Amino acid sequence: MHLNQKIRNCLICRVPLDSTMPRVKQRERLGDDLAMAREALAKLSESLKVANQGIEISRREKDEVVAKLSQAEKMLADGKRSLQKLEDDNSRLRHALEQSMTTVNRMSLDSDNSVDRRIVIKLLVTYFQRNHSKEVIGSFKLFMVS
């Protein structure tokens, strides 16, 4: 009877053991799933870190490009202002030259000024050919005084 009682006790113990086995297997599967989820999370975390670094590099590059663009726009604006100033200066110089030429033509037509027009024209041409030489102006002054 001793053996029968042990068998009966084993059978009695087996029922709770049979009901806990699926729970143990479920826990093992959940543990495996948890390990896989942690591994996937680690991979995603690393991918996120790399993506954030890429974003930061792109942001720095964008800032550099914006700074260079701003500098180029400033240089363009400065160039446009310089060009406008040069055009204004050129216009004023043309106007002054036209006025001077008009004055010279009036003087040459005036009969009281008996200076030979050919000599005056030659001196003016020499003046411009020699890059506005002061020597020519000096000669011109001496010629006009005498």
Automatic annotation (TrEMBL):
Signal peptide as annotated in the record: none
Positions in coiled-coil regions: 27-103
Compartments, record wording: Golgi apparatus
Domain of life where this protein originates: Eukaryota
GO molecular function: small GTPase binding
Keyword list, A-Z: Coiled coil, Golgi apparatus
GO biological process, any: Golgi organization
Primary localization class, coarse: Golgi
GO cellular component, one term: Golgi apparatus
Name assigned to this protein: Uncharacterized protein
Organism name: Aegilops tauschii subsp. strangulata (Goatgrass)
